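Journal club side-thread
Mid-discussion, someone asked how the predicted structure for our own chain would compare to the paper's figures. Pasting it here so we can look after the session.
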Amino acid sequence: MHVATAQLPAIHDSDDKIFTAGHAVVVLDGASAFLPVPVPASVYADHLGSYLRDALNAAPDADLRRLLADGIEHTARQLDLTPGRSPSSTVAIARELDKRVEFLLLGDSVIVLPEEVLTDARMDDLDLEPRRRYRERLAAGHGYDSEHTALLRELQEQQAARRNQPGGYWIAEADPVAAEHALVASHPVSTAPWAVLLTDGAYTTMDHLGLDDWPHLVHSDTGKLADMLHHCEAWEAHGDPDAGELPRAKRHDDKSLAAVRFTALPACIAGSSDQ
């Protein structure tokens, strides 16, 4: 498995985190809760991502949902977190096992494959009024004014009431039950020889600008991927600073991506638990 990554800002200044295990990659996008929380979203994502990386190295063939549940429980215990009053994070995992690749997605990050785009649209599907209103106002040219800030505050309150609830949406936070609702997929390496894992801050702008030549992108090195993210941020700053063309909650969201090319592994390696 070959992995090239890029982040903007750098990992230590970002709520996005990328971790690479022996035969897997994990991408997280931390989000702060509306209510005061005991630790920043970046700390939560870093702890959860570190656990997932180490667990994938220790047990490469572990059930991904079970592994995520254990990671959420461990992180909540280590950071003394309480459901509903904690930071949260999306989770995207790509793992290679023998001649198959497996994927897990929880939250609004994206996994692009040769024949499909894996997304978790449950938060957007709530279609909450404050989200519709702030997007309409941005498209009408109002920009990031005080009314926009008020709408985001209202939106966060409504989302918090629906977080990790039936009929709402599911995200990694402090309740391990959320992992049971993660989306999973499995494909032969022959039909999914590569994948691109992106946080929404990267995917949304790249998709809008037509920077979606994914088969070419997976052969790019880290420098070229970083240049692409800088190009996206420059366009946000100078081409669409008030988000009239591409309505978005804030002018610049953290941007991260991991471009992965898979290689089939011998069964004796893929099944080993001591990598």
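Post-session note: The beta strands are 2-8, 16-20, 24-31, 88-97, 100-106, 110-112, 117-119, 183-188, 194-198, 255-261.
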